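re the bet — no i am not wrong, look at it urself. input seq straight from the record:
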Amino acid sequence: MSRTSAPAPVDQQVGASLSHGLKQRHLSMIALGGVIGAGLFVGSGAGIAAAGPSIVVAYAISGLLVMLVMRMLGEMSAANPASGSFSVHAERAIGPWAGFTAGWAFWFLLCVAVGLEGIGAAKIMTGWLPGTPEWAWVALFMLVFCGTNLAAVKNFGEFEFWFAALKVGAIALFLGIGVLAILGILPGTDAPGTANLTGEGGFMPNGSEGLVVGLLASVFAYGGLETVTIAAAESEHPVQGVAKAVRTAMWRIALFYIGSMAVIVTLVPWGDPKVVEKGPYVATLDHLGIPGAGQIMNMVVLVALLSAMNANVYGASRMACSLVARGQGPKALGKVFGGVPRTAVLVSSVFGFLCVLLSYWRPNDVFMWLLNMIGAVILVVWFFIAVSQLLLRRQLERESPEKLVVKMWLYPGLTWAALVGMAAVFVLMAREPDTRTQLYYTGGLTLALALAGYVRQVAASRKG
């Protein structure tokens, strides 16, 4: 497919028409909260069950890959803040077809994810209030966050600020309690030593296959970090905001993800069925005899799910608006009212709710197709980020070196290393039956979008 330079100023015009209502405190907490998703609180249980204590290694490996991706994205976003983020960078580096593919694939991922998060949050509410219909809770959450995002970007920022503060507070408290328990200082507990790390089959009880399953589970738990670079375009100081968020990503990932996994597998036997049934955090607090642990963590998970819904409606609407501004979608979606792309917010919310309805109407075919199609989208996006950075860095060094506020480490070596890492994850997905189907469906979606984008690119070049 041919490469064509894209006009960068188009997305900057979009950024000018959008409100710049996000403050630095909002951006900082969006970046911080984006690291702590529902996948960490619940989804990590399956990874622990498969990998045992070696889940710590799995999260460390995937965390390193995510750090490299965020550093690359941060370099490009600090040099060229854009509401379309990596889609804009891919268009400038590779061509319009690449921006089209990355942007619409990510929009599709976010919209389906909104539906999934709504279903998860509704299940918690029906657990507290039996007899209430799940769809009604999902509809309520959709209305709240659709309304929040329709009003003004500062409303989104405030919601995310407090959601993130609650998540950070909860996980910090969990880590504090966990460390005290490991040291044997927590009242009523004895120091576990290394019994849970080396017993019951050792550090890698299921061998390399278990580690691979844990690695794949951990890779997809990191989704959500990209939102901060989309939000940066609507902040008071986009360049400084992105630079700060990216530079602190390393310790956040190490502390929240890798630290949490280390605490959990040290305190709780990895084979405990409660780790999967209740989630690893609830299982750990129950194991320590913390009263009301289950309900406390359910509240935290609910906040994490609602936070993700809010962020995904925001991210989907901004990505759609940016794509339309670059001639990559229906013009109606790109209309901005009062600094907010309200049509894009409405369409993204409706699409998310439609996914929820499909989970009731067609759970075994259409809904499963949707789930499989989004299975590896985040990896496709990361691939576009890495290739774009590889190409744009040379251009920046040659034309605008002063814009390199954030620099990718050891360029181009670590960029190539990240691409090799992504290729390895694709290969591992192809080897595992559960993830192979997702790979096929995501591959089909990506190819369809790439073909559509290429046809549009050729048609546009002929008109020009």
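see?? Confidence is low (pLDDT under 50) at residues 1-9. told u. also Residues 9-455 form a domain with the Amino acid/polyamine transporter I fold (CATH 1.20.1740.10). so pay up
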